[in-house]
Design goal:
With 392 residues, this protein is of the alpha/beta class. The chain is built from 14 helices and 14 strands.
Length: 392
């Protein structure tokens, strides 16, 4: 038994030596555009609260009312007794929001991707995934038992090569993020759809960072490109632009019925608390009533990108509210983040294994509620410190 703990300590020591040991910071107050950490008030450039509605009065009122009416827990899996009428209502709302026949709520984005992929494919099938898809997609693919191919990031020639190799498999499942979480670029969904149809494949998209931001009233990148009706499996999360928690999958009713009977991460877990589900319902309403938020976050992100690009930072190919500043070296990235913290800017360093080796970066996340003045000040601080550290 002593060796067990010694081995853990040794692994942690290795992480520390490589500057890869991570600790959770305690945040005080709501995760709005300004946060408090270690008694410092910081401009928050690291949250996924893209529309700035996690602290919205409508969401809070809905959550409080749900607690008063239904308590704090679903108390069981939804297929047993943990399925309030509210859950069905919100799934119908999500289906309308996504213009699909039906939707199903999962407890997290990770649970959704692992559950969906492992339910839909197995031995005799093949999964074809963008190389930098989210870890939950990769883990789902590995657990499924299906053959697993990865194509070069957004490389349609390589995707076609993989599809040609996939001939003879029972089900060919293409999976891609819509907005890539660490690079901030967009999947070429129209081209992927064309190849999917050419080779008789099925397409699943992860709209974790697209839902709420792109498309009409935030319906997602597939809506933005006009290909929603050609995507079989449309998954998204509820803890980012929605400002809540959990995830969903939307599609035809037969797909949703199948997943509610086959997706183990849905079947074998207690449902989300009623307060969370009620806040999702309110978030859908807010996104449609206050669609200026979607326009503002994209406009503000575009301005920040333009200013940082002109200054000489490597922003990869960001096209969204996610703006990476590529540094490469882990120590230099940590120093950059620390210096920004000192001047009251929260820009968290992203290190392996979240990103590839030698690709450490700051990941800036823009919110609709950031003021133009705060963003202009932050850009000047980022440029100043970037020059001092030799990053630009």
């Amino acid at each position: 038994m002593n060796n067990f703990y010694t081995n853990l300590e040794n692994e942690l020591h290795k992480l520390d030596e490589q500057h890869l040991f991570r600790e959770m910071k305690i945040v005080h107050g709501a995760l709005t555009e300004w946060v408090e950490i270690k008694e410092k008030k910081l401009l928050n450039l690291s949250s996924n609260n893209y529309l700035g509605i996690a602290d919205h009065p409508m969401l809070k009122r809905a959550a409080i009312q749900a607690i008063q009416q239904s308590g704090c827990s679903a108390t069981s899996a939804r297929l047993i007794v943990g399925n309030y009428e509210l859950y069905d209502q919100v799934e119908r709302d999500l289906a309308r929001f996504k213009n699909t026949e039906a939707a199903l709520i999962f407890n997290s984005g990770y649970a959704a991707n692992v559950g969906i992929v492992t339910a839909l494919v197995g031995r005799g099938d093949i999964i074809i995934s963008d190389k930098i898809n989210h870890a939950s997609i990769i883990d789902g693919a590995r657990l499924s038992g299906a053959e697993f191919l990865r194509y070069k990031h957004k490389d349609m020639a390589d995707l076609e090569r993989c599809l040609q190799k996939a001939e003879g498999y029972s089900c060919k499942l293409i999976v891609t993020d819509s907005v890539f979480s660490m690079d901030g670029d967009l999947a070429p969904l129209p081209a992927i759809v064309e190849l999917k149809e050419k080779y008789g494949a099925v397409l699943m998209i992860d709209e974790a960072h697209g839902s709420g931001v792109f498309g009409e009233n935030g319906r997602g990148l597939a809506d933005f490109y006009g290909v929603s009706d050609r995507v079989e499996i449309n998954m998204g999360t509820l803890g980012k632009a929605f400002g809540c928690s959990g995830a969903y999958v939307a599609g035809r009713k037969v797909l949703i019925d199948y997943l509610s009977n086959k997706a183990r991460s849905f079947i074998f877990t207690t449902g989300l608390p009623p307060a969370v589900v009620a806040s999702v319902q309110a978030a859908i309403q807010v996104m449609q009533l206050e669609n200026w938020r979607q326009k503002d976050v994209l406009a503000k992100a575009s301005w920040v990108r333009e200013e940082l690009d002109k200054a000489g930072f490597n922003l990869l190919n960001s096209e969204s509210q996610i703006i990476p500043i590529l540094v490469g070296d882990i120590e230099a990235t940590l120093e950059f983040s620390s210096r920004l913290f000192d001047v009251n800017i929260l820009a968290v360093a992203i290190r392996p294994p979240t990103v590839p080796p030698k690709a450490a970066r700051l990941r800036l996340s823009i919110m609709a509620t950031h003021s133009s003045e705060d963003l202009a000040w932050a850009v000047e601080q980022i440029k100043l410190i970037g020059r001092e550290l030799g990053i630009i």
